[in-house]
Amino acid sequence: MGKRSVHGGKKMSEIEVRALKEDEYELWDDLVERSPHATVTHKLDWLKIIEKHTNSKLYLFAGYLGNEIVAAIPFFYRKRHFIRTLSSPVDGAMIQNLGPIIPDYDTLKQDKREFYFREFQKGLDESINNGLKPNIISIATPPNHLDARPYVWNNYQVVPKYNYIKDIKDLDEVWEGFKKQLRKNIRNAEKAGLVVEEGGSEEYNFIIRSLSNRLDEQDVDFPTSKEYLLDLFNAFYPKNLKVFIAKLNGEPITGIIATAYRDKLSIWVGATQVDLKGIYPVDLIQWKIIEWGNKNGYRYCEILGANMPSISYFKSRYNFDLEIYFNIKKADMMTSGIIKSFQVIKGLMNRIRER
After folding, report:
1. What is the band of 81 on the pLDDT scale with cuts at 50, 70, 90?
2. Which of 13, 27, 40, 183 is 20 to 30 A from 232 in CA distance terms?
3. Where are the alpha helices (DSSP H) in the chain?
4. Domain annotation for the chain: domains and CATH numbers
């Protein structure tokens, strides 16, 4: 394994990439734990739950240099009609990031980091093009995995995306960094009698129902199944899923589900707005999550998704730092043509409706 060779005039990867067999899956979580960019959604139990509920097939690709795994990526394979897709993550999983992991990345010198990632991506393309032959490949990299060059060099489309993140070790500094109006909103919510508590199964389900109802009001389909979210709760609560609920006069009104992994809390699902004149419960909840994280040993708080002007305006009031990740995509010529034709037709139909 890992020998240099030439195929069709092009040097093949020095790293051999293949899909792990199911009896090798026990290797996976150790790779995740050793990879600084990995998220809780990389864990094998989460990946298997995604596979169960998204009509997809999980593949765990590992890159070998000799007998050592130096990089890996989870993919979900789907075939719909004549289109084969490999996604990391897959639609319907309600997760924003997945993508590649490199064990012990922080301890590697820069030349090793680049060698492993460059050769892994080259080998990955060789492996999947010789095997699954997808028409579309899509990847959303883990946050702060800064090097997207191997994708560019292998003819992928690369689009930078952003989250917000903040070191919450110094609560006074975090509070003073908030926009003045945000601090006022938090104080007013507390004066109005709102309290924020940790929740369990009942509160978790309340948040899911609230989000589903809000989407129904907007005539938007819920992005996943309730059973998927229930399986995640059963597998990851309370260690990696935290539930925070805002109550008024003892009654729940809105809440947030956060993921907790290593030293980071990530605000994930919920935060539905409620009609309380002049009172903003979500502002209070997010502050209480930050306080809770500080008191319970977490170093960072992450607010996912800062990619739409209206949403980023709301989230920027916390004055967190930007955190980059990349959306990566490649489609073969036939599929690209079909997608472009569909987009043109969709645009024409929308203009016709607007007349």
Report:
1. confident
2. 27
3. 28-34, 44-53, 110-130, 149-153, 171-177, 180-191, 201-217, 226-236, 281-295, 309-316, 333-354
4. 6-162+325-354 (3.40.630.30), 169-298 (3.40.630.30)
